[in-house]
Each structure stands twice: as structure tokens, then as C-alpha cells.
Design brief:
single chain; alpha/beta; Immunoglobulin-like; TIM Barrel; 3 domains; 6-stranded mixed sheet; globular
């Protein structure tokens, strides 16, 4: 085999397994403004030369690359895993790469030092090599002080002078990176902090008196500690095939229909139902939310009623059977006779995509800062990749929440493509072992680089049997778990009133579902004080604002779940009784490897009580019919 062609010899340095990356760099990991990004890689070469490495990084839109030094994690044994850090200070797509090179002077000085220690006397040959290296560095430097340091060493070139710390530092600053090797450029998507940490409250505006009435409630909702106010679709609702109460096929004359059957003579996805208000009302509501530190999220359901204007204007965008009839939406056994899907394989797909871009950008310009996307897993992956970038080009603040209860690989792919947050299987994880396994997966596997969970305790479509049969203690347990396990969680209105009656046994649909009728809602549920307190605790304790810091503790009782979450200067312990019917007792076993003091005091942030804890077993008893169903402890300062 002939030798490689080219004027430059092949690199002898290898940079392998750079992190953080996803699928070999195909997708960008996620971070938030203010994060410190830790970059690692295996850096090595043949021979015994000493290496140097830096992580080079660049902010969105910047021209200049900055550098942060990397260090071997096991330097004392010449380890090959290196690490470096840099801070991300603005939103957008950051870039980074790793550069490594042989430090010729450090290699030379190391050999010289070892020869001195060994007692070798004639070092003239070695010093002649050092002189060349010092002269090269002196000619290259633009710093007068460094030049003077190097020239003094050259004037009196002895081993001691060449090995002086100031000389070594001056050479390192100015040495040539003759055999430098770089990785490819890797991407990193940086969002605002709310992308990772947020508390959501969902309500149907029609059940609260319309948009103006909801706007008047925003100060009270903000006072409860919520960061995002989320609305199901607020658009005109179709009349043809309209559903009645409890999803019946025939609607009564006063039945309002499902807000997911979007489109009527009054408009489509770009319009507001006239009984709710106007576009100006949406803008005003969004402005009031911003003034109270909140964002407004709008549900985007990419489907249409039979009365949607697009059915007349763009029939080619819909799924038509060979006989000319339209195919309504189905998710067997669920059937949605009032909803029609779009044909994403239409030859006019470009026009369809552009129409949706205009819809989303229009709502952003009205003041909407988040979109909850209904069933994104039934639309093309490339569409989401494209439209999220399009919207972020207009406003990088916008949050996309994926409502995809589907195959795990599909949920992961949507998150990789750019969805800011994702619904999860949390609602169906109700035992200690299920929760431990699932949260550990989210927190400690590769998913933590891109999949940001949002633990909704309930949704208009999901009333789990645990809540149906557990009564108020079950609601308390699930609320505490959602609010303390996940940095982002959500509550659908009605939860604070302990609503738990299904339409029939074995169903997760609510009886008298708000999806099909107007309810009279008010912000006065008995669970609201605990919701407020938990949201206060979340905002006061950084340990609850991240996910990959959770450590589950043994309890010697599967009806109890316990875990610790830590941040610098802040440690939270949570113990919850998963059994909503019976008192349970056990221990929270604090392992020594977590690094806590042998004994310490914890304060229950829900009650104010103090307890003495220690490394090892700590007795707990929780009674759903007594004074407490869960503890949220903080190590007292």
C-alpha cells in the first residue's frame, strides 16, 4: 500500500468519544443560559510526548472562537480522558470543537528534569535543543514581558534557567501548535432557563368566562407560583359532526363541541372563538402574563373540523378516500368523528408547511411564548425539525411541548429534533420500583442530554385509576412527586378539587369531560394552598430545578419512596407514602457516599418541623388519614 499523499504528515494524535454529543453529532444536546458546559474526550497519541488540549467554543452569531483549557482527569497516571468547561451566556446554537497538540517544550523539559534527577552531567546536547525551542517562542511572542523572560533564559542557558516556572509558562503561552488536531464542529442548543424549570397550569378559558375573565385571574394564578398558563385550543369550533356531552355522537343545541374540532365560518387556526374574545384580547392577556412573570401557552392541534375554511380553500391538504369522502381521525378504540387529519403526503406539502409556519409565527407575534403540540408523533419528523427552527428564527424564547404518548424511540426523536419539553409516562408510573426505574432513566442516561420531562399530574384525557380510587391522599402524593422529581410539572384545573370520577369504570376519561361541555370553574380548590407552597419550595431551592441530581434512597418498605436532590449549598430529601389508604412506616436510608455530615438537622418545608437525621437509617411514618402524606425536608443551614 503506498504512503499517503500530501505535504502534511498524518496526525499522530487521536481525539475520540467527544461529549456532549447525540448520535455521533447528528443532533444538538440541550442546555440553558447560565449553564457551565463540561466537554470531555479521550485524547492520546503514540509515544510519550506530553499533550495539551483546549475546547474551542463560539456563541451564536459570533465570529471569534474562544478557548478553555482541558486537563487529563487522571493526570497522575497519564490518563487519556480529558475535560474542560465553558459557560453559555446567550440563547441559540453554540458550536464547539476540541484541539489537541504535542507540547514539545514540556516534553523536552520533562525529559531534562528526569535526567537531572538521574544525575546525568553532560546535558549540552539537550540544552542546544532547548535553545531552539526558546528562540522560536521568543520570536513568536507579541508580549514584551514574555519576550524578556525567554531572552534572559537564552542568555544564561542552564538547565535550572530553562526549567524555571516563569520560563515554562512563557513558552506554553507562545509555543507553536505544530501537530494540532481538531475534532469536527459540534452543536449545542441553549434555551432560556424556563425551558428546563417551570410550573404549568392548564385551563379551558370558556369555563372561566372567556379571555378577559382569565386575564383578571392572572395575578392570582401567578401568586400560586405558576410560570406558564396553558390553554387548549381557543379557535372557532366546527358544527358538523359536533360531539355532545361525554363524547356522544349527537350534540344538543347548546353543546359547545370539542375545542379540538377546529374551524368554522368564523375562521380557523389563526382565529379566536368569538365567545372567548378577540386577537386583541389574547395580546392583552399575554402582556398581563408577562407583567406577572408568566408565559402563555397555546395548544396547537394540527387537525380540522368539517367546517374549517381550509377544506374549501385547500381540499388537497386533507385525506380523501377513493370515493371522495374525508377520513376522520381515529386512534382505535378512540374515534374522533368531528376531526379530520391533514394529508402530510400531499403533493402540495410545501404550501401546507408554509401555512403552518404562518399560523405559529402569527401567534408568537400576538404574544404567545409556548406551544403545546397535540400528537406530534403523527406528523413528519422533518416538518418539526423545520418549523421549530423557523419559529425560533423569529423568537428564540418560544417553548415547544411535545404531547406524544407513543413509542419511546419516537418520543426521543421528537426531543432530539428540537422539542423543548416532553410529556412522559409519569402518569402511569405509580409504584416505587416503576418511578425509580423511570426517573433514573430520564436523569442518568443519555436522554438527559436532550429529553426534558414535564410531569403533568393529570390532563383532560388522563385520569389514572390511582387517582380515581385513591381519594385526596393520592392527589397529594402525585402532586409532591411531580413537583419535586421533575424540574417542570403541570396541573390541569379540577385537580385541586380532587376530581376523580371517570366516565365509566376502566376508562381514563373524566365524567362530564370539560372537552365537551362548559364547566363553571373557580380558583378555590382545597389543594391550592399545598400547590402554592410546593411552587414556593421549588423556586427557593435550586436542588429542585434540575433533574440529573436525584438519588433514590432505600426505605425497607415498597409503599414508601424516598430520594435526595442536591445542588451547591442546597439539599432536599423527599419521602412520600405511595399507599393512599393506609399509614406506612419505614426508613430513609442515607448512604455515606452522598457526602453528607454524619449527623445533621432537616426542616420539613411543608410543616416547619425539625428533625435530627444522620447517615444511615432515619425512621419515617406517613399516614394518609393523619397529619401528613409526604415530607419535603431541607438540610438546615
Amino acid at each position: 500500500m503506498p504512503a499517503p499523499k500530501g505535504s502534511q504528515a498524518p496526525s499522530r494524535i487521536r481525539i475520540n468519544l467527544p461529549e456532549p454529543t447525540i448520535d455521533c453529532g447528528r443532533y444538538a444536546p440541550k442546555r440553558c443560559v447560565g449553564d457551565t458546559v463540561r466537554v470531555t474526550a479521550d485524547v492520546f497519541r503514540d509515544g510519550h510526548e506530553i499533550l495539551r488540549a483546549v475546547v474551542r467554543y463560539k456563541a451564536p452569531g459570533a465570529r471569534r472562537w474562544l478557548e478553555a483549557e482541558m486537563h487529563a482527569l487522571d493526570a497522575e497516571i497519564r490518563g487519556v480522558r480529558w475535560a474542560g468547561e465553558f459557560a453559555v451566556t446567550t440563547m441559540g446554537r453554540w458550536e464547539w470543537t476540541i484541539e489537541a497538540w504535542s507540547d514539545v517544550f514540556a516534553t523536552w523539559s520533562d525529559e531534562l528534569q528526569r535526567k537531572l534527577v538521574a544525575g546525568q552531567e553532560d546535558l549540552s546536547g539537550e540544552l542546544s535543543e532547548g535553545a531552539l525551542l526558546l528562540r522560536d517562542a521568543a520570536e513568536r511572542t507579541k508580549d514584551a514581558e514574555d519576550r524578556a523572560t525567554l531572552e534572559r533564559a537564552l542568555d544564561d542557558l542552564t538547565a535550572e534557567a530553562a526549567l524555571a516556572p516563569d520560563v515554562l509558562e512563557a513558552v506554553e503561552r507562545n509555543a507553536e501548535r505544530g501537530d494540532a488536531t481538531r475534532t469536527g464542529v459540534h452543536a449545542l442548543d441553549v434555551d432560556r432557563a424556563r425551558a428546563r424549570f417551570s410550573s404549568w397550569y392548564e385551563l379551558f378559558p370558556r369555563s372561566w368566562g372567556g379571555l378577559k375573565a382569565v386575564e383578571a385571574l392572572i395575578p392570582d394564578i401567578a401568586d400560586l407560583g405558576f410560570d406558564v398558563l396553558y390553554f387548549p385550543p381557543i379557535h372557532p369550533i366546527g358544527r358538523k359532526n359536533r360531539k355532545g356531552r361525554n363524547n356522544t355522537l349527537v350534540a344538543g343545541p347548546d353543546d359547545p363541541g370539542s375545542p379540538y374540532a377546529i374551524g368554522a365560518a368564523e375562521g380557523g387556526h389563526d382565529a379566536v372563538h368569538p365567545e372567548l374574545g378577540t386577537l386583541d384580547d389574547v395580546a392583552s392577556l399575554c402582556e398581563t402574563a408577562r407583567a406577572h412573570g408568566m408565559d402563555v401557552c397555546l395548544d396547537i392541534a394540527l387537525n380540522a373540523s368539517a367546517d374549517h375554511p381550509w377544506l374549501t380553500e385547500h381540499p388537497e391538504w386533507f385525506q380523501q378516500r377513493p370515493d371522495g369522502t374525508l377520513k376522520y381521525a381515529e386512534n382505535p378504540p378512540k374515534r374522533y368523528q368531528d376531526i379530520y387529519n391533514f394529508n402530510w403526503d400531499t403533493p402540495a406539502w410545501r404550501e401546507l408547511w408554509e401555512a403552518w409556519r404562518q399560523i405559529l409565527v402569527g401567534w408568537v407575534q400576538t404574544g404567545v411564548k409556548a406551544f403545546r403540540i397535540d400528537n406530534p408523533h403523527t406528523k413528519p419528523f422533518d416538518f418539526w425539525d423545520w418549523i421549530i427552527k423557523q419559529v425560533h428564527a423569529v423568537d428564540r424564547d418560544v417553548i415547544f411541548l411535545s404531547e406524544a404518548f407513543t413509542r419511546r424511540a419516537v418520543m426521543r426523536e421528537l426531543a432530539k429534533l428540537g422539542f423543548t419539553q416532553s410529556y412522559t409516562y409519569f402518569t402511569w408510573k405509580n409504584s416505587r420500583w416503576e418511578l425509580t426505574e423511570y426517573v433514573n432513566e430520564l436523569a442518568w442516561t443519555k436522554e438527559a442530554e436532550y429529553f426534558r420531562p414535564n410531569f403533568f399530574v393529570n390532563t383532560p384525557d388522563i385520569l389514572h385509576a390511582y387517582l380515581q380510587h385513591g381519594g385526596p391522599p393520592a392527589f397529594v402524593t402525585r402532586l409532591v412527586l411531580a413537583a419535586t422529581l421533575s424540574p417542570s410539572y403541570g396541573v390541569y384545573s379540577g385537580y385541586e378539587h380532587f376530581e376523580n370520577v371517570p366516565v365509566r369504570e376502566g376508562s381514563e376519561e373524566y365524567l362530564n369531560s370539560e372537552k365537551y361541555e362548559v364547566r363553571e370553574r373557580s380558583l378555590d380548590g382545597p389543594l391550592l394552598p399545598m400547590i402554592r407552597r410546593l411552587n414556593e419550595i421549588r423556586h427557593e431551592n435550586p436542588a429542585l430545578q434540575t433533574l440529573s441530581n436525584v438519588h433514590f434512597l432505600d426505605t425497607h418498605n415498597d409503599a414508601l419512596i424516598a430520594y435526595a436532590k442536591t445542588a451547591p449549598g442546597n439539599t432536599i430529601f423527599v419521602v412520600a407514602n405511595i399507599d393512599p389508604h393506609n399509614a406506612q412506616e419505614g426508613v430513609a436510608l442515607v448512604p455515606a457516599h452522598l457526602g453528607f455530615a454524619p449527623a445533621f438537622t432537616v426542616e420539613d418545608l411543608l410543616t416547619g418541623a425539625h428533625h435530627d437525621w444522620r447517615i444511615g437509617a432515619n425512621y419515617v411514618r406517613l399516614d394518609p388519614h393523619g397529619d401528613q402524606q409526604a415530607h419535603v425536608f431541607r438540610i438546615a443551614s
